[in-house]
Specification:
Layout (H helix, E strand, L loop, with lengths): L18 H13 L4 H13 L7 H13 L17
Helix pairs in contact: 1-2, 1-3
């Protein structure tokens, strides 16, 4: 028997995000055949509960995508990013 999901109201937003992070997120969403918004919602909901949103296989894929897109940022960088120009 399939479970019925909860009904939510989604809104369009104009969030700015670092270019390489976005490329990695889009690759992960594509790997799981879900939309970018669904991926971000899942990441946030897992983190709100202190849970890891990804298994080992996806974490390995993320590392590959970070290398492919030159993403050298870490969590320690998150509050110290500055835009070019």
């Amino acid at each position: 028997m399939a479970t019925v999901g909860k009904t939510v109201e989604r809104v369009q937003t104009g969030v700015r995000i670092e270019k390489r992070i976005l490329k990695v997120l889009k690759a992960v969403a594509e790997k799981h055949d879900i939309g970018l918004g669904d991926l971000i919602e899942g990441i946030v909901l897992h983190n709100f509960e202190g849970r890891q949103p990804f298994g080992d296989d996806t974490l390995q894929f993320i590392e590959q995508m970070k290398m492919a897109y030159g993403l050298d940022l870490s969590a320690e960088d998150s509050h110290n990013l500055q835009e070019e120009g």
